[in-house]
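Submission sheet (multi-component)
Chains listed below:
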Amino acid sequence: MRLLWHEIYKTFSRWRTYISFGVIALVVLLTEVVMRLSAGEIIYRMMRPFQRDFLIVGNLLNVWFVTAFIMNSLHIHIPFLITLVAGDIVSCEATSGTVRFLLTRPPSRQRILNAKYLATLFYTAGLVIFFALLCVLPGFALFGSGDLVIHHYGTYGIVFVPEAEIPLRLLLAFAGAILSMTVVASLAFFLSTLAENSIGPIIGTMAVVIVLLIFGTIPLDFFRNLKPYFFTTYMTLWQGFFDIPIRWQEIGTSVLILGLHSAGLFLLASILYRRKDIQS
Amino acid sequence: MKRVGWLGLLLLLLLLPESIRAEEEGIRYLKALEKKYAGLQDYTVNVTVHFDIETFKAPDLQAKIYYKVPDKLKVESKRVLFFPKEGGYFNPSLFKTEDYAVLLLEHLTYDGKKAAKMRLIPKKPKNNIHDIVLTLDVEQNRVSEIKVVRSGGGEIKAEILYGSFDRFELPTRINLLLDFPAVVPEIKGFQPPSDGTKRVAGRIEMTYSNYKVNSGLTDEIFTDIEPRNP
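Outcome: structure written.
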């Protein structure tokens, strides 16, 4: 436990850790303010397919809608912020020349790695929770509450989530988002155990995520057949909590696949790091 | 060739009085409807909207409707509400004879009562309305069914059930049957094609209760609400 707190302390002592928090704060707050100022335009754009047929009444642009909107917009970008710390957490010891000193201390390599991995997960969860709080708290002040109406672009349909159900669904959705980000963090962590500097794992993780996301959206049968094998396909599991009924089966499959990816990557990292010949 | 021309003219002369008579009869029915609701100045009513459309996943929603002649409408709801523009509320001044060319299509029995079916073609362009097929209960001078045929294809049919409120017959229930192509923005860029619905088909059931008729609604209630044609 002391080892874990030590790793967390080390992580949060670095200024690099706060880049992600700063970027998220800037993007979310700016988005919320701009959305508040151009509320009419957003509602017009979002509801354009329905305006010919329906009179739309009520507070559509509320905190829940804004939160879902920002989550939808940023779920591809947040993984890159995760890698800044996850890709650095093991390799930084080699970069700063402290790895030999660290590994000659009594705790075993595995215990050190466990602590570092848990610290990575702590940072990942912290970042997503910070993101959630930043969406919801200023959102309440700026937009107020109400029912959540989700319109999936390119379709003529809506999902109407009653206000009373939203807090629990949102909580589950953010838990799902933490799990999604855990896979990215695990990948970066795994690459970090292989590298001697931080750039490689960070760029490597970004490359994998970008490539899989691109392959997942190319409308060719070859890539469509491969899509179920990309972990990025399951990273949007949180969206299932904003459907009626909640897509439990799809969420369950995603949780299993993402969980296995995280566990597998950590296991692989552990095996390789325990066998690693530390030369510097 | 000359003989065919004469025959055509003869046929026209024979049919013309019939079509004029049919139009006059249709106008007479509409005027009777207009007269029946002439005393209706305004009303407020509570409405419950139930969606039975596959792509509309929404619970039953409640709202309050404020209506004032000729076409002032306000829909008030504590929650978000998608309220149908066409056929969502009762507007007796919608079928003014001067606004339409009227064609009486047939006499029929509708729901056990004598009815007349007529086609109303707007004289001026009206939203997306190509024409309206109206089924009027000629015994009680009330609209039983409205079918709006849209310019872009598709139609909306409203079936209306009535109750008596303060000497006016007003809807207690309107069933809207929808079938029209959806206006869906195309997804541009390197995206997979959407498997979303391109046609909207389904039913919206609206139940009305607690009418307050001619309570003297002021125009201020409708400020910042644009007049809408259902």
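Remark: The longest strand of chain B covers residues 199-213.
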